[in-house]
Amino acid sequence: MTSATRPNLLVVMADQLGAHVIDRDEGWVETPHLDRLRRSGAEFTRAAVTFPLCVPSRASLLTGRMPHELGVGGNRHGSAESEPGARPDSMGHLLTAAGYDCAYAGKWHAISPSAPPDAGFEVLHPFGDRGLADAAVKWLRSRADASRPFLLFASFDDPHSVCEYARRQPMPYGDVDPGPVRDAPPLPANFEPAPFEPEAVRFEKHAAQQTYGTAEYTPEEWRRYRAAYRRLIERTDAQLGRILDALDESGLTDSTVIVFTSDHGDGDGAHRWNQKTALFEECVRVPLIVSGPGVVPGTRADPVSAGLDVLPTLLEAAGMPAPAALRGRPLPVADDADEASDRVVGVETRFERADPPLTRGRAVYRGRYKYAVYSWGRYREQLHDVIADPGERRNLAVESAFDAVREQMRACLLQWCLDSDDHEFLKLIPLPADAPEGTQERIFAVPY
Q1: With 181 labelled, which of 202, 341, 348, 360 sits at a CA distance of 20 to 30 A?
Q2: Who's near 213: CB < 8 A, 6+ residues apart?
Q3: Cis ω on the peptide bond leading into residue 159 (within 30° of 0)?
Q4: Tens of pLDDT along 54-89?
Q5: What residues contact residue 205 under an 8 Å CB cut-off, 6+ apart?
Q6: What is the Cβ-side half-sphere exposure of residue 37, based on CA atoms within 13 angstroms?
Q7: pTM greater than the 0.90 cutoff
């Protein structure tokens, strides 16, 4: 991504938009504006968030660091000092230092609901989708003759409103009509919980019924939920279209790198799950599309990190070096080759409840395999070939034929925790048989 002049940067984020819904064979949602980005852009079909929950995921995207490195373990509000955007090495500050005019519109939620004044951004619009696209469009039109490059971050709350739908509550930006149940999407192929699903996940769903609202859902209600979710996604796509049109009308499209992504997905009825937080593919895998100058269109099928890789990608486009401590890497937007990769991509989670101890989990991707571990319970080890089994129906961790793969993935998780100073979870991981001598003693030097 090199040119005589540095490109403008536009990041558009949805909330709770799972990549599975816009997969090319899904067929139950109309997203013409996302589709036009896909036609001109690099689409990363195996992009995972760092934590399938709003605040920690967004904190990662703004800083390029894992949530546990930032001390952000959930959605509960922290102190002003813990705001990731206040860090001098966060997105707004780094791009401002690079000579970019930086503006933010919409949902921040990392940690404050709206972008704080010390995050390196001009705040165009607070948290809330009403008026967000208007503010972004107006600002883009004002940039047509600007001499300095810009970074605009437009962050929508929808389709997060499906949470209110599930709880039978009013939806903040207007209700959507799911339509007749006979016209709704069918139940997903992985609708029923898998035979060796983690006990911890089943426990957490029932413990959070007031939040999830779906424990007594009938199959018909699940189908309506899936229809309502897609109507919300279409509403967000329409707002994306307005921003892309303003970019076109201002003559800025050819000079702007556009990134579209989401902070996490939604269970969408898979495993009888809605909401997020679980390490299921529907919750962890999100859209990640990059379009603009220097981008070779096409799909990229290797695992990447939506939370860790966006910031290095923007910095590379701006001609700025990334901070040395970042674990992410620039996305391969200029290369359409689909080569095998040994990269390990990590994900973490923690379920929030009033009463500790809280269920925690970690997952790592490498090649075609995904290995997840929860902090307690039966079948807390999960091993899936997500290419052959994207619905995670067959837990290979309980089959001796895959013991060698499980050992390799155990080693990947151990190394990931060591490299990222994930001391909290090191005491909970199953160690590989060939772990260096003394590993367990070092981990438990302080037993609790």
Answers
A1: 202
A2: 163, 166, 167, 168, 274
A3: yes
A4: 999 999 999 999 999 999 988 875 544 578 888 999
A5: 212, 215, 272, 273
A6: 27
A7: yes
